Amino acid sequence: MPDWKSQSEITLDNNVFIKLMHALLGVYVWEFFVSLSFDWDFMSRRKKFRWPMIFYFLNRYLLLFALVGIAIALNITKEVNCQALYTFNQLAGNAAVGLASINLSLRTVAVYAQSKILIGVLIVLILGHWSLILQGVLVEAEWIPETETCVITSANNTILAATFIYSMVFDFIILMLNTYKLVGRRGPSGGSQLTRMLFSDGLVYFIIAFLSNLIATVFMCLNLNAIMSVIFNVPAAIGSTIVACRAVRRLNKFYHRGVEVYASGSGSNSNDTPPRFRTMNQVAVGGRTLRGTSTVRPPPSDLTSGVHVQMETFTRTDNFNNGTVSPTHVTFEDDSTDKRGSVIVDDLEFGDSESNKHEEL
């Protein structure tokens, strides 16, 4: 068992800390650039910007700036304003932890169909979290000419430990809420593709965020030495941010992937409203391509079992002998199946002619 308080051990731990910070900066920069195309879709207005994305962008970019600030603090050889530098690093780093919890909370709100009671509870938890985050920013640092480095002379480790403990408990509450809801929705058939994605990916992300904060909290409570007490704070912030931002991207990309009929399992709430998805479709008619958008929607609650299928297809037949065009109208009805649903194809574009197709299932 090493003497954690000895100067030789502290020097060794400090060298490990410096190398770890540079490695983590490389990991996060790699993660940042491989997912930059998602950010660019919003910046170039290819995707519509909505207010929850504010927390996503703040989370990603504040942590990036914090890691750059830490790298500057560890490698600077000329005198700088250490107080301002470390205050910014502390604020941006702690804010990244808080924003990661907010992003995971928004995912939970989506799972619970924007329950007002849940939103109120989460707002109270978020405000309590940020009250600790802002108090943890109060650090004092100064330039030491002999070592040509910035050194923290005073910090409230108690508040910092409380912040990570709060984050850990907060993430655990969110994890339990998602587990309860998603397990109930899976049902005997395993649930829809959306439910499976939220269950498999979502719970893994919550567990990683929880464990990241747990490790940082344990080392702060052990208080082995000044370095070991904070060595896992940055990994916790990076781990929480990466999984929270990936959760946001996965859910956003899912809604642009295509059509899916959402079927609630037996354990789901009967009042839950399934989402509707729209996608572009192409239909070949007479050698031409018919393009349009389709919507899959659930059937009305007052329908009885069975299905009524009615298809109205308008095609254009070219008569090359006399140069005339004759329309053809085909109607098809079938009541032989037991499934219910509705498919609407609209907004069609067909070369230089007009076409309309309506299918009701």
From TrEMBL:
Superkingdom classification of source: Eukaryota
Residue intervals passing through the bilayer: 20-42, 54-76, 88-106, 118-138, 158-177, 198-220, 226-248
The entry's keywords: Membrane, Transmembrane, Transmembrane helix
Name under which the protein is recorded: Transmembrane protein
Organism classification: Eukaryota, Fungi, Dikarya, Basidiomycota, Agaricomycotina
